[in-house]
Structure formats: structure tokens, C-alpha cells
Design a protein that fits this description.
single chain, about 600 residues, alpha/beta, 4 domains, five-stranded mixed β-sheet, three-stranded antiparallel β-sheet, 26 helices, 12 strands, about 45% helix, flat
């Protein structure tokens, strides 16, 4: 049997994957591995790095705290800043808990992990408090700490008035998401607020351009029919107008919108698994020595990059314990489907309606599409000869996952690829709301109208078609009753004398909100419109019962209804509106689904 080349770069990349001892997950050991294997490291352009370095070079530098979840790159930042400011690499390699260097007459104290300091060592925070408050002007700090441990560390030392004041200040920065406040010489960077969707394409770019791949060009399995699946996966990532990267970036953007942050460490794990995953390899990740056996057994199709994106090479328990796979699998891609996609995959070979699409998306891909296993199992399934039904259904799941990443943009709507996810409005949310708002473009009014219609159905509990105005109603005592027939007010969807319903983007946190305005003198009432809530309101607008989709979302909207009614009361007081308590306006729905009301005299 022919042998494949042994490539140190592949071995190095493998360490980032989901293996028991993934040393590359920790910055403290990565330099040692690089020197041992003599490979070029993965250097990612970090968003705040240049800004932090400029701070320490400035005339009035501030102390810096780097916080975030494990794996966000805090230690990497510390090391890169240390090197940029002239610190010796061999000194940093000693892995001291506290390092110091002098720059422009000031001492900079580096603490690479606050949680690793002993109780006595943490007393250095007393000096840091003096520096932040301005009592000490010649010493500044760069400190890395997980967000869950940062405040606890400040609580664990002797509480002077200054320490207590600085601790409360840092806690306020964490809660508000702000970076600075006047009067304090400190900037806090929460790396969990960095966008994984922006970071992911940079990681792909750096991995694909690593010179270590050059060794693969001399391998016996880099060309021909029996091509190395690692090399095949790399080729697919490199393809022009890469849809894998685009669609994955879209999914990661939706994760950020839903406040599901994936740190750098998890993104590196994902990329390594995408390229190297295989269920029959040791630790479920390929190395060069595995390739001849994999090709000989004709199981290269199990290394499909489309399966590996979701961790399908791993056992269920292992997959569910890894954040990135647990998060991506919430979209249900492969499990969810639509009729068009399944008709293409199952009946496309014989059905003239789908034959062209079958040839385009299945037959042309002989590696991961029309491989021998899928074709034979499909035939057996259709002819009723397959005794293992689950075998074909698992292959069908893999094909749905593949199609999600290869169907071109121009066919997205026709083939309804977002119906392959749990969130059928996800593509619309990205394309029609999130991206236009980020690009400061107008959002089509039809989406506001649908939101108004969905909210009206939830607020009133009635199956109404009203979409040009928001209906505020109660059951008579402002309770959160399922049916609310007593009209309180109509709010115009179109801007009218301070009234409006519109989408807004918060520039500080990039969150999308649904805002309802009551008057020019009062702030709008905003609802954070992440994907789940958008999906919920949209489905209710299209006919789903509020409680059947998400009880949590239903309760969220009822809580939002209460805020709207409270703001209505404020407007009435501000504008001296006189409420007529001698009559109640009762809602009724006409045959067209539009709302009418009649007054009921109260004696």
C-alpha cells in the first residue's frame, strides 16, 4: 500500500481539534510546539491589538483590563503587547505570573491570568487601584482575567475605600458594556463582545495560506481519483465565491445576534475539525498516516467537510459537550428539511422536474455527493431492499448539510435553503433587516407590517389581519390575559406626530431593536429583536398559535406589551389626555380580519 507524506503542519493543525490534549488551545505552550515542529503559526489579526499598543505608547497611557470567556485570546493579546513594547520573548517564555517592563519613564505590570495569582500576589491590585484612581502616576497595568473571576479577585483582597470604589466601577463597566468612564485611568476590553463572524473568515484565510500546505503538493494522494480527503476539504474551502465560508459566517452572525458568543479557541477547533474530521480515525481526526487506509476502505466520503462542520465525525456525547458544535446544531441543519430538497436527493434521478438540479448538485460531486455508498443505499431504500433504514436517513442528513453549503445564492429563495434550518426566517432576518441596518439602508416596510400584525395577534389574542397600526388592548385590568378585547389605543405604524413602529440598530452593541414611539417627548419602547423573537412574531403573523412555538417568547412579548401600556399612561399624563371612564371600547374582528370597535356605556 502506498504511503502518504508526513506533514508537520497537519500534525500541528490537528492539535487545535477536539482531542483530549489539545495543547494549541493554550497560548502558554504554542510557542514550544512551533519551535519543535518548525511550522509557521496561525497569526490572526486581533481587532483591538493596535489600539492597545498605541495606548501604552501615548503620553498619558491608561491601565488595561482584558476580560471575556476562556479562549477569547486574552493571553495572546498580553504576549503580543509585551513583544510590541520591547519585552524579551525568553523572559515571557518563563511563564512568570507577573512581568514588568519600563517604557517612557513608566513601569508597565503585566498579569497574564489574574485567577492564577495567590492571595498574597493579588494584593498588587491595591497598587492597581491607586493607578486607576490617579493616586499613582508612574505605574500602569495590563491584566487578563475571565469575566467570571474578575470581580471575585477584587472582592478577595482587603477592602479599602479605594479598592471598593474601583471594584464597583469595574463592575459597572462590565454590566454596561462600556469601555471607559471619565475620572478613571482604565480601559476595559471585553473580548466576548468581539464578533466571531468577523473573526472566522480571517482564521480561514490564515489557515489556507499557511506555507505548511506546500508539503502536500508532493504527496501521492494530492491528485487523481483517490485524493486525500484533507486536501479535498482544503480545495473546497479555497473555491471561488466560497459558499462554505459565506454560509458559516451567516450562521455565526446569527449566533452573535442571539448573544451566543463563540471565542477564538472554539473557532480554531471548528476549522481544524472541518479539514481533518473522520469518524474512523484515531481521536476522530485524520493525520497523514491514516490516508492510505481510509482510501483503501473507500470511506473517504465520511471525511466530508459539510458533515465535519457540525461535528458529525464525533460521538454524540462528545459533540454535545463542545460549544461550537452544540451551538451550530441548534440550527437543525440536516435534521430539518423541505420537500424540494428531499425530492431532489431522493427522486431527482428519475423525476424530470428535478433531474437537472439532481445532476447539478448531486451527480457532479462524486466525492461527497454521488459517492458509491449514497447511490447504492438510495437505490436499496427506494426498492424496499434496505434493511437498515437509518443508514440511508443518516446519509440523507449529510446530503442536506452539503446542499446548505453549495446551493448558489441566486437559488436560495427558490430552493428555500433556510427551510433546512430550525429558523425559516433566518435568511430574511440577515438579508432584509440586519445587513441593511448595518449598511444604513432602509428596511422594506413589509417587514414592519408583518411585525405589527404578529404583535397585534399576540397582544389581543385575536386572529386579526391588522398591520398598519399597532393595537394596544387589555382585558379590563391590564392583566396579561390571553384574550384582550378592551381597546386602549391605536399606534400608527407609519411615522405620525411622534408615533411610529420601526427597526433600529444600536451602534454600540450592534443589536437590532423593534422600537415603538408614542410621542416626540417620550423615548420609544424597544424590544431586542434577536432571531428567535423575530421568528416567533413572524410565525404568529403567518398563522401559528403564540403558545405553540415558544412559551418563553410568548411571555417576553406579553412583558413588552406591559411596557407599551405603561408608556401609554405616561403619554396621557404628559399630554393631559382625559380618559373617558364612562365608556369602554370593545374590539371585534370583521370578516376581513380587520379590527372594529364599539363603545359600551358604563353606569
Amino acid at each position: 500500500m502506498a504511503k502518504s507524506n508526513s506533514n508537520n503542519w497537519i500534525s500541528f493543525l490537528r492539535q487545535y481539534g477536539p482531542i483530549p490534549r489539545n495543547d494549541n488551545m493554550y497560548d502558554e505552550t504554542i510557542q514550544r510546539i512551533i519551535k519543535k515542529k518548525k511550522v509557521t503559526p496561525i497569526n490572526i489579526e486581533m481587532i483591538y491589538l493596535e489600539e492597545i499598543i498605541r495606548n501604552f505608547h501615548s503620553e498619558s497611557p491608561a491601565s488595561i483590563i482584558l476580560t471575556g470567556t476562556a479562549g477569547d485570546g486574552k493571553t495572546y493579546y498580553c504576549r503580543e503587547v509585551w513583544k510590541a513594547l520591547g519585552g524579551a520573548e525568553n523572559q515571557w517564555a518563563k511563564n512568570n505570573k507577573i512581568n514588568e517592563l519600563f517604557l517612557n519613564g513608566k513601569k508597565i505590570i503585566f498579569i497574564k491570568d489574574l485567577s492564577e495569582l495567590s492571595t498574597d500576589d493579588k494584593e498588587i491590585l491595591t497598587l492597581m487601584a491607586d493607578s486607576i484612581s490617579g493616586e499613582e502616576n508612574n505605574i500602569i497595568f495590563l491584566v487578563a482575567a475571565n469575566d467570571g473571576q474578575l470581580i471575585e479577585s477584587w472582592k478577595s483582597i482587603h477592602q479599602t475605600h479605594n479598592i471598593s470604589n474601583i471594584r464597583v466601577f469595574i463592575e459597572e463597566l462590565l454590566i454596561s458594556g462600556k469601555r471607559r468612564r471619565d475620572g478613571y485611568n482604565l480601559s476595559l476590553y471585553n473580548l466576548s463582545h468581539s464578533n466571531s463572524a468577523l473573526l472566522f473568515p480571517k482564521i480561514i484565510h490564515e489557515v489556507l495560506l499557511n506555507p505548511g500546505w506546500e508539503e502536500c503538493s508532493n504527496c501521492l494522494f494530492s491528485t487523481g481519483e483517490q485524493i486525500c480527503p484533507i486536501f479535498e476539504n482544503k480545495k473546497r474551502l479555497e473555491s471561488e465565491n466560497n459558499l462554505i465560508v459565506k454560509r458559516l459566517t451567516d450562521l455565526l452572525t446569527l449566533c452573535e445576534v442571539n448573544e451566543l458568543h463563540l471565542p477564538l479557541r472554539q473557532l480554531l477547533l471548528l476549522v481544524a475539525n472541518m479539514l481533518l474530521g473522520h469518524p474512523e480515525a484515531k481521536e476522530r481526526l485524520l493525520k497523514c498516516g491514516d490516508i492510505p487506509e481510509i482510501l483503501g476502505k473507500d470511506t473517504a466520503h465520511l471525511a466530508s467537510i459539510y458533515r465535519n462542520i457540525f461535528g458529525e465525525n464525533l460521538p454524540d456525547r462528545k459533540r454535545s459537550s463542545i460549544d461550537v458544535f452544540n451551538t451550530l446544531n441548534k440550527y437543525g441543519i440536516g435534521t430539518e428539511t423541505n420537500g424540494i430538497i428531499d425530492n431532489i436527493l431522493i427522486f431527482g434521478e428519475d423525476d424530470s422536474k428535478y433531474k437537472e438540479l439532481y445532476e447539478q448538485f448531486v451527480l457532479t460531486d462524486t466525492k461527497y455527493g454521488a459517492d458509491k455508498t449514497f447511490i447504492s443505499e438510495k437505490k436499496a431504500y427506494l426498492e424496499g431492499e434496505s434493511l437498515e433504514k437509518d443508514t440511508f436517513l443518516n446519509l440523507l442528513k449529510s446530503q442536506r448539510q452539503r446542499l446548505f453549503f453549495i446551493i448558489p445564492t441566486e437559488l436560495e429563495e427558490e430552493l428555500m435553503i433556510w427551510r433546512l434550518t430550525t429558523f425559516q426566517y433566518a435568511g430574511e432576518f440577515l438579508k432584509e433587516l440586519y445587513k441593511p441596518l448595518h449598511d444604513r439602508n432602509r428596511v422594506n416596510t413589509q417587514y414592519i407590517s408583518r411585525m405589527a400584525k404578529g404583535l397585534n395577534r399576540i397582544i389581543t389574542g385575536l386572529l386579526i389581519e391588522e398591520k398598519d397600526r399597532l393595537i394596544l388592548s387589555t382585558s379590563g385590568n391590564h392583566s396579561q390575559a390571553k384574550i384582550s378585547r378592551i381597546l386602549e389605543e391605536f399606534i400608527s405604524v407609519k411615522a405620525n406626530r411622534g408615533e411610529y413602529v420601526k427597526f433600529e440598530l444600536d451602534k454600540e452593541n450592534s443589536k437590532v431593536y423593534l422600537a415603538v414611539g408614542f410621542s416626540n417627548d417620550l423615548p420609544p419602547v424597544r424590544l431586542h429583536l434577536q432571531l428567535v423573537r423575530y421568528e416567533f412574531i413572524s410565525r404568529v403573523a403567518e398563522g401559528a398559535l403564540p403558545g405553540s412555538f415558544s412559551r418563553e417568547c410568548y411571555e417576553d412579548i406579553l412583558a413588552y406589551k406591559s411596557k407599551l401600556l405603561k408608556r401609554l399612561e405616561e403619554r396621557r399624563k404628559t399630554e393631559d389626555e382625559v380618559e373617558n371612564i364612562s365608556a369602554l371600547n370593545l374590539l371585534k374582528v370583521n370578516e376581513k380580519g380587520l379590527v372594529e370597535y364599539k363603545s359600551l356605556e358604563v353606569f
